[in-house]
Amino acid sequence: MIRTENIHKSFGDNHVLKGVSAEFHAGKPNLIIGSSGAGKTVLLKLLIGLFRPSEGTVYYGDTNLFSLDDNEIRSIRMKVGMLFQGNALFDSMTVGENIRFPMDMFTRLSLKDKNKRVDECLEMVNMEGINDRYPSEVSGGMQKRVGIARAMVLEPKYLFCDEPNSGLDPQTSILIDELICSLTSQNNITTVINTHDMNSVMGIGDNILLLKNGQVAWTGDKSQVLESDNKVLEDFIFASPFLRRLREDALKQRQGE
Amino acid sequence: MLIDTFLYNFGQYILLLKSAIAKPERFSMYYKETIRQMDAIGVGSVFIVLLISVFIGMVTAVQFADQLGDSFIPSYYIGYIVRDITIIEMAPTITCLVLAGKVGSNLAAEIGGMRQKEHIDAMEIMGVNTAAYLIMPKVIAAVLVIPLLVAISAFVSIIGGYLATVLPGSISHTEYVLGLRSFFVPRYVFIMFVKAGAFAFLLTSVSCYFGYYVKGGSIELGEASTSAVVVSNVLILLFDFIIALLLT
What we know:
The complex is a heterodimer of chains A (257) and B (248).
Chain A: E1 2-11, E2 14-24, E3 29-33, H1 40-48, E4 55-60, E5 63-64, H2 70-77, E6 80-83, H3 95-106, H4 111-124, H5 140-152, E7 158-162, H6 170-187, E8 190-194, H7 198-204, E9 207-212, E10 215-220, H8 222-225, H9 231-237, H10 241-256
Parallel strand pairs in A: 3-8, 3-9, 6-7, 7-8
Antiparallel strand pairs in A: 1-2, 1-4, 4-5, 9-10
Helix pairs in contact in A: 3-4, 3-5, 4-5, 5-6, 6-7
Chain B: H1 2-20, H2 27-41, H3 46-68, H4 77-116, H5 119-126, H6 130-165, H7 173-180, H8 186-212, H9 218-247
């Protein structure tokens, strides 16, 4: 589990996060949602330790992340996998080399064993046989899957996903969500997903944290979204007339039942 | 304001170097990267170094021959002057100024591009000490390879001087060789290697620094690349003077 306590973060005069306290549980997807500029990415980067908070702290289990020195933070990060919005795959390496990189850096496995693990990871994301292709030679959706495979290669305890569905068509988005969801539950990983994709919220939102102007505006799960009377949540999730109508129909149907 | 900026950048540069000096996570990865950089910096720069060196030697020889004119200074001094000026100054300084443009801008753009594409963040999250992995192999490769390039440059410059003076008949082969073999001070070779090593360290570490901390988009990446070259060049000239003061 990851826990934040009263996190504040400022960049000069810009107070981005204003006292965020939250819990992210193992074995289910934890979603951070909110409109652009709400502070989602800053919170995610704080959770990983790429930023230091102006006030407050982050706990990995019982360990206070910001009481550790750089080397200790690096040892925690070896238990972390991350899927970036832009994938962050190394262009000069093949898909296989990208996935193998963390093993090359941190394990003493033989090349044969490392390649076997690469194949396992590619199979896990249904991308067998693309080891020798370069990231630029595969589609955006395939790159996301390769990114997930790389994030999973060292069997992380924590998985962070920054906008995993951005730039993907709805069908591929659902596949990526399902993949992340199944890996999370199978491996009992603490997964934190930063998104503003409504399909993800309603599909895999087992623990949702809504941010507005750097503060927690609502927490709950997908089953509570429809009936919540929280104005911020309502304005954010059901922003389009089409979704408002769907919600009203769903609520009427429930009342009828 | 200028002093603030200088102090801020200098402090950040020192901190970056401090974090870059660390025990490698996996020695073989650093070794492989160092070899790759030695190939890129060394082999990749041989042609340009040969080209500029031959012209440096030719120009130095021709101009000195012209200045000697009908004076009483023996013409074999051309070989002597070309040798010493090449070894002490031209080969290390001009070669490194050119390499600051070629290698320095390349390193700043490579690391800056990695920063912008979140490759550096990705490595950090994996637990890699990015300052060490991305900077140290480049600095070590440059400090090993650039002195060799400078030695080649000195040798080729002397040949350039020969071609420009002996072939047209300004002086004879014997006179040029006699000049080369006269008044040789071995310490000058030592100075050449000290300069080459110091300039190699400066041009790679400064270029990596500008790339590592790049912010923004492609315009900022271009600016970082330009700053890397300009600052490296200024520092090379400054340290050229300091080393000259200390070692001569």
